[in-house]
Amino acid sequence: MRVAILQFPGTNCEFDTQYAFEKLGHTTELVWHEESSLPTEIDLVVVPGGFSYGDYLRSGSIARFSKVMKAVQAFADTGGKVLGICNGFQILTEAGLLPGALKRNNNLHFISKQQHLRVVNSDNAFLNQCSRGEVLTIPIAHADGNYYIDEAGFEALEANGQILLRYCDTEGNPVVVNGSVTSIAGVCNQAKNVFGLMPHPERALESILGSEDGIKMLKGFES
Amino acid sequence: MTAVVNVFLKEGVLDPQGKAAHHALDALGFDGVVDVRIGKQIIIQLDTDNRAIAEEKVKEMSETLLANTVIEDYTIEIN
User: Fold this and answer.
1) How many angstroms away from the CA of B4 is the closest CA of chain A?
2) ipTM summary value
3) Which of A39, A96, A169, B69, CA to CA, is 20 to 30 A from A28?
4) A46: domain CATH number?
5) Domain range for residue A198?
6) pLDDT tens per residue across span A162-193
7) CB contacts < 8 A (A, B)
8) Buried b or exposed e, range B14-51, using 16+ CB within 10 angstroms
9) Which secondary-structure segment (H or E) carries B19?
10) Do the Cβ atoms of A106 and B16 come within 8 Å?
11) Domain limits at B46?
12) Measured between alpha carbons, how far is A57 from A54 in angstroms, rounded to an integer?
Protein backbone atom coordinates (compact mmCIF):
# COMPACT_ATOMS: atom_id res chain seq x y z
CA MET A 1 0.00 0.00 0.00
CA ARG A 2 1.17 3.55 -0.75
CA VAL A 3 0.25 6.06 1.92
CA ALA A 4 0.45 9.85 1.56
CA ILE A 5 0.85 11.69 4.88
CA LEU A 6 0.11 15.41 4.87
CA GLN A 7 2.26 18.02 6.62
CA PHE A 8 1.04 21.46 7.64
CA PRO A 9 2.94 24.04 9.68
CA GLY A 10 2.35 22.74 13.20
CA THR A 11 1.71 19.10 12.30
CA ASN A 12 3.63 16.91 14.77
CA CYS A 13 2.38 13.33 14.31
CA GLU A 14 3.53 12.83 10.72
CA PHE A 15 6.66 10.85 11.65
CA ASP A 16 4.79 8.59 14.11
CA THR A 17 2.24 7.95 11.37
CA GLN A 18 5.01 7.23 8.88
CA TYR A 19 6.68 4.84 11.38
CA ALA A 20 3.36 3.07 11.90
CA PHE A 21 2.61 2.39 8.24
CA GLU A 22 6.21 1.45 7.46
CA LYS A 23 6.23 -0.96 10.39
CA LEU A 24 3.23 -2.61 8.72
CA GLY A 25 5.26 -2.90 5.51
CA HIS A 26 3.82 -0.01 3.51
CA THR A 27 5.43 2.75 1.50
CA THR A 28 4.84 6.27 2.77
CA GLU A 29 5.38 9.73 1.39
CA LEU A 30 5.16 13.01 3.27
CA VAL A 31 3.26 15.68 1.34
CA TRP A 32 3.77 19.37 2.18
CA HIS A 33 0.59 21.44 2.36
CA GLU A 34 1.64 23.71 -0.53
CA GLU A 35 1.60 20.82 -3.01
CA SER A 36 -1.35 21.13 -5.36
CA SER A 37 -1.45 17.43 -6.16
CA LEU A 38 -1.01 14.12 -4.37
CA PRO A 39 1.61 11.54 -5.42
CA THR A 40 0.32 9.13 -8.06
CA GLU A 41 -1.07 5.70 -7.22
CA ILE A 42 -1.85 6.49 -3.63
CA ASP A 43 -4.05 4.04 -1.73
CA LEU A 44 -4.62 6.14 1.36
CA VAL A 45 -4.20 9.76 2.46
CA VAL A 46 -3.61 10.36 6.16
CA VAL A 47 -4.16 13.78 7.71
CA PRO A 48 -2.10 13.38 10.90
CA GLY A 49 -2.32 14.98 14.32
CA GLY A 50 -0.73 18.12 15.65
CA PHE A 51 -1.61 21.79 15.82
CA SER A 52 -1.83 22.99 12.24
CA TYR A 53 -1.51 26.80 12.13
CA GLY A 54 -1.35 26.83 15.93
CA ASP A 55 -5.06 25.95 16.13
CA TYR A 56 -5.68 29.65 15.41
CA LEU A 57 -9.31 30.70 14.89
CA ARG A 58 -10.54 27.08 15.28
CA SER A 59 -8.61 23.81 15.13
CA GLY A 60 -8.24 22.87 11.48
CA SER A 61 -10.01 25.98 10.13
CA ILE A 62 -6.99 27.38 8.28
CA ALA A 63 -5.36 24.12 7.20
CA ARG A 64 -8.52 23.11 5.44
CA PHE A 65 -7.99 25.89 2.86
CA SER A 66 -4.44 24.83 1.99
CA LYS A 67 -3.61 23.84 -1.59
CA VAL A 68 -3.17 20.17 -0.83
CA MET A 69 -6.66 19.94 0.65
CA LYS A 70 -8.19 20.66 -2.78
CA ALA A 71 -6.36 17.58 -4.05
CA VAL A 72 -7.54 15.59 -1.03
CA GLN A 73 -11.12 16.70 -1.68
CA ALA A 74 -10.87 15.55 -5.31
CA PHE A 75 -9.27 12.25 -4.20
CA ALA A 76 -12.10 11.65 -1.71
CA ASP A 77 -14.77 12.62 -4.25
CA THR A 78 -13.59 9.81 -6.53
CA GLY A 79 -13.72 7.24 -3.71
CA GLY A 80 -10.12 7.57 -2.44
CA LYS A 81 -9.63 6.58 1.20
CA VAL A 82 -8.77 9.33 3.67
CA LEU A 83 -8.02 8.99 7.37
CA GLY A 84 -7.90 11.98 9.74
CA ILE A 85 -6.34 11.48 13.16
CA CYS A 86 -6.90 14.05 15.92
CA ASN A 87 -6.07 17.42 14.28
CA GLY A 88 -6.63 15.59 10.99
CA PHE A 89 -10.18 14.75 12.10
CA GLN A 90 -10.71 18.43 12.95
CA ILE A 91 -9.41 19.47 9.51
CA LEU A 92 -11.73 16.99 7.75
CA THR A 93 -14.81 18.24 9.63
CA GLU A 94 -13.86 21.86 8.90
CA ALA A 95 -13.48 20.91 5.23
CA GLY A 96 -16.94 19.36 5.22
CA LEU A 97 -15.49 15.96 4.27
CA LEU A 98 -16.89 14.61 7.54
CA PRO A 99 -20.11 15.68 9.30
CA GLY A 100 -20.22 17.54 12.63
CA ALA A 101 -17.63 19.67 14.40
CA LEU A 102 -15.11 19.35 17.25
CA LYS A 103 -15.48 21.76 20.16
CA ARG A 104 -13.34 22.51 23.19
CA ASN A 105 -13.45 19.64 25.73
CA ASN A 106 -16.19 20.18 28.31
CA ASN A 107 -13.71 20.30 31.20
CA LEU A 108 -11.49 22.73 29.23
CA HIS A 109 -8.48 20.48 29.82
CA PHE A 110 -6.01 19.02 27.37
CA ILE A 111 -6.71 15.32 27.97
CA SER A 112 -3.79 12.96 27.39
CA LYS A 113 -4.18 9.32 28.48
CA GLN A 114 -4.81 5.74 27.43
CA GLN A 115 -8.50 5.37 26.62
CA HIS A 116 -10.80 2.41 26.04
CA LEU A 117 -12.84 2.58 22.85
CA ARG A 118 -15.78 0.49 21.75
CA VAL A 119 -15.99 -0.47 18.10
CA VAL A 120 -19.48 0.61 17.05
CA ASN A 121 -19.35 -0.36 13.36
CA SER A 122 -16.73 -2.53 11.71
CA ASP A 123 -18.22 -3.03 8.24
CA ASN A 124 -15.98 -0.42 6.66
CA ALA A 125 -12.52 -0.07 5.10
CA PHE A 126 -10.98 1.08 8.40
CA LEU A 127 -12.21 -1.13 11.24
CA ASN A 128 -12.77 -4.39 9.34
CA GLN A 129 -10.04 -6.18 11.37
CA CYS A 130 -11.98 -5.37 14.57
CA SER A 131 -15.30 -6.82 15.63
CA ARG A 132 -18.39 -4.90 16.52
CA GLY A 133 -18.54 -4.30 20.29
CA GLU A 134 -14.82 -5.02 20.75
CA VAL A 135 -13.03 -2.84 23.31
CA LEU A 136 -9.70 -1.36 22.16
CA THR A 137 -7.16 0.69 24.10
CA ILE A 138 -5.71 3.67 22.24
CA PRO A 139 -4.16 6.90 23.56
CA ILE A 140 -5.97 10.22 23.25
CA ALA A 141 -4.30 13.64 23.43
CA HIS A 142 -6.50 16.62 22.61
CA ALA A 143 -8.15 19.82 23.84
CA ASP A 144 -10.77 20.10 21.10
CA GLY A 145 -12.26 16.62 20.83
CA ASN A 146 -15.79 17.31 21.94
CA TYR A 147 -17.74 16.01 18.94
CA TYR A 148 -20.91 17.91 18.16
CA ILE A 149 -23.60 17.17 15.60
CA ASP A 150 -27.24 18.26 15.59
CA GLU A 151 -30.04 15.76 16.18
CA ALA A 152 -30.92 15.20 12.53
CA GLY A 153 -27.24 14.69 11.73
CA PHE A 154 -26.83 12.25 14.59
CA GLU A 155 -29.82 10.20 13.45
CA ALA A 156 -28.35 10.00 9.95
CA LEU A 157 -24.98 8.86 11.36
CA GLU A 158 -26.66 6.11 13.33
CA ALA A 159 -28.93 4.99 10.51
CA ASN A 160 -26.01 4.75 8.04
CA GLY A 161 -23.61 3.02 10.41
CA GLN A 162 -21.21 5.99 10.31
CA ILE A 163 -20.34 6.00 14.02
CA LEU A 164 -16.99 4.17 14.26
CA LEU A 165 -15.95 4.38 17.91
CA ARG A 166 -17.20 5.51 21.31
CA TYR A 167 -15.21 6.28 24.46
CA CYS A 168 -16.01 3.51 26.94
CA ASP A 169 -14.95 1.69 30.12
CA THR A 170 -13.27 -1.74 30.21
CA GLU A 171 -16.68 -3.39 29.73
CA GLY A 172 -17.56 -1.31 26.70
CA ASN A 173 -20.08 0.97 28.42
CA PRO A 174 -19.97 4.55 27.12
CA VAL A 175 -18.14 7.06 29.34
CA VAL A 176 -17.98 10.85 29.20
CA VAL A 177 -14.41 11.83 28.34
CA ASN A 178 -14.69 15.23 26.64
CA GLY A 179 -18.42 15.87 26.27
CA SER A 180 -18.87 14.37 22.78
CA VAL A 181 -22.44 13.63 21.65
CA THR A 182 -23.10 10.04 22.86
CA SER A 183 -19.35 9.66 23.58
CA ILE A 184 -18.46 9.55 19.88
CA ALA A 185 -14.70 9.22 19.26
CA GLY A 186 -14.72 8.66 15.50
CA VAL A 187 -17.02 8.81 12.47
CA CYS A 188 -16.94 8.27 8.71
CA ASN A 189 -18.74 9.91 5.80
CA GLN A 190 -21.81 8.44 4.18
CA ALA A 191 -19.81 6.85 1.35
CA LYS A 192 -17.51 5.25 3.99
CA ASN A 193 -14.24 6.28 2.39
CA VAL A 194 -13.38 9.21 4.69
CA PHE A 195 -12.64 8.39 8.33
CA GLY A 196 -11.87 10.57 11.34
CA LEU A 197 -11.06 9.85 14.95
CA MET A 198 -9.60 11.74 17.91
CA PRO A 199 -7.56 8.81 19.36
CA HIS A 200 -4.08 8.04 18.02
CA PRO A 201 -3.77 4.49 16.61
CA GLU A 202 -0.22 5.31 15.42
CA ARG A 203 0.80 5.59 19.07
CA ALA A 204 -0.47 2.09 19.93
CA LEU A 205 1.81 -0.29 18.06
CA GLU A 206 3.86 -1.95 20.82
CA SER A 207 2.44 -3.64 23.89
CA ILE A 208 5.50 -2.56 25.89
CA LEU A 209 4.30 1.03 25.34
CA GLY A 210 0.79 0.26 26.56
CA SER A 211 -1.12 -1.19 23.63
CA GLU A 212 -0.78 -2.64 20.15
CA ASP A 213 -4.43 -2.23 19.24
CA GLY A 214 -3.48 0.47 16.74
CA ILE A 215 -2.03 -2.19 14.42
CA LYS A 216 -5.43 -3.82 14.09
CA MET A 217 -6.98 -0.49 13.16
CA LEU A 218 -4.40 0.60 10.59
CA LYS A 219 -4.25 -2.89 9.03
CA GLY A 220 -7.89 -2.47 8.04
CA PHE A 221 -6.86 -0.39 5.06
CA GLU A 222 -4.84 -3.27 3.62
CA SER A 223 -7.89 -5.27 2.61
CA MET B 1 -14.57 50.91 6.72
CA THR B 2 -14.23 48.69 9.75
CA ALA B 3 -16.20 45.50 10.15
CA VAL B 4 -16.63 43.89 13.54
CA VAL B 5 -17.59 40.23 13.44
CA ASN B 6 -18.76 38.59 16.66
CA VAL B 7 -18.74 34.79 16.66
CA PHE B 8 -20.53 32.78 19.35
CA LEU B 9 -21.54 29.16 19.82
CA LYS B 10 -25.16 28.67 18.78
CA GLU B 11 -27.93 28.70 21.36
CA GLY B 12 -28.32 25.13 22.53
CA VAL B 13 -24.65 24.25 21.89
CA LEU B 14 -23.00 24.00 25.30
CA ASP B 15 -20.31 26.66 25.78
CA PRO B 16 -17.80 25.09 28.20
CA GLN B 17 -15.73 28.27 28.53
CA GLY B 18 -18.80 30.38 29.30
CA LYS B 19 -19.91 27.81 31.85
CA ALA B 20 -16.50 27.85 33.58
CA ALA B 21 -16.50 31.66 33.71
CA HIS B 22 -20.07 31.57 35.08
CA HIS B 23 -18.98 29.23 37.89
CA ALA B 24 -16.02 31.48 38.66
CA LEU B 25 -18.26 34.55 38.87
CA ASP B 26 -20.60 32.67 41.23
CA ALA B 27 -17.63 31.58 43.34
CA LEU B 28 -16.42 35.21 43.57
CA GLY B 29 -19.79 36.20 45.02
CA PHE B 30 -21.24 38.07 42.00
CA ASP B 31 -24.92 37.28 42.29
CA GLY B 32 -27.61 37.57 39.65
CA VAL B 33 -25.55 36.05 36.80
CA VAL B 34 -28.01 34.08 34.68
CA ASP B 35 -25.78 33.00 31.80
CA VAL B 36 -22.29 33.65 30.44
CA ARG B 37 -21.23 33.02 26.86
CA ILE B 38 -17.75 33.49 25.50
CA GLY B 39 -17.12 34.23 21.85
CA LYS B 40 -14.56 35.95 19.67
CA GLN B 41 -14.45 39.33 18.06
CA ILE B 42 -12.73 39.75 14.70
CA ILE B 43 -12.04 43.31 13.51
CA ILE B 44 -11.45 43.75 9.79
CA GLN B 45 -10.28 46.94 8.09
CA LEU B 46 -11.63 47.23 4.55
CA ASP B 47 -10.56 49.52 1.73
CA THR B 48 -14.12 50.32 0.64
CA ASP B 49 -16.47 53.13 1.71
CA ASN B 50 -19.49 51.32 0.36
CA ARG B 51 -21.45 49.77 3.22
CA ALA B 52 -23.37 47.32 1.03
CA ILE B 53 -20.17 45.98 -0.53
CA ALA B 54 -18.50 45.75 2.88
CA GLU B 55 -21.46 43.85 4.34
CA GLU B 56 -21.58 41.43 1.45
CA LYS B 57 -17.84 40.76 1.59
CA VAL B 58 -17.74 40.25 5.34
CA LYS B 59 -20.77 37.97 5.24
CA GLU B 60 -18.96 35.77 2.73
CA MET B 61 -15.79 35.82 4.89
CA SER B 62 -17.82 34.81 7.93
CA GLU B 63 -19.57 31.94 6.17
CA THR B 64 -16.36 30.69 4.56
CA LEU B 65 -13.80 31.02 7.32
CA LEU B 66 -14.54 33.13 10.38
CA ALA B 67 -17.44 31.06 11.75
CA ASN B 68 -18.09 27.33 11.60
CA THR B 69 -21.84 27.47 11.03
CA VAL B 70 -22.24 23.87 12.22
CA ILE B 71 -21.74 25.13 15.77
CA GLU B 72 -21.45 28.92 15.61
CA ASP B 73 -23.56 32.01 14.84
CA TYR B 74 -22.11 35.39 13.94
CA THR B 75 -23.12 39.05 13.82
CA ILE B 76 -21.58 41.78 11.66
CA GLU B 77 -21.32 45.48 12.49
CA ILE B 78 -19.97 47.88 9.88
CA ASN B 79 -18.61 51.23 11.03
Assistant:
1) 15
2) 0.88
3) A96
4) 3.40.50.880
5) 2-222
6) 999 999 999 999 999 999 999 999 999 999 99
7) 35
8) ebbebbbebeeeeeeeeeeeeebeebeebebeeeeeee
9) helix B16-27
10) yes
11) 2-78
12) 9
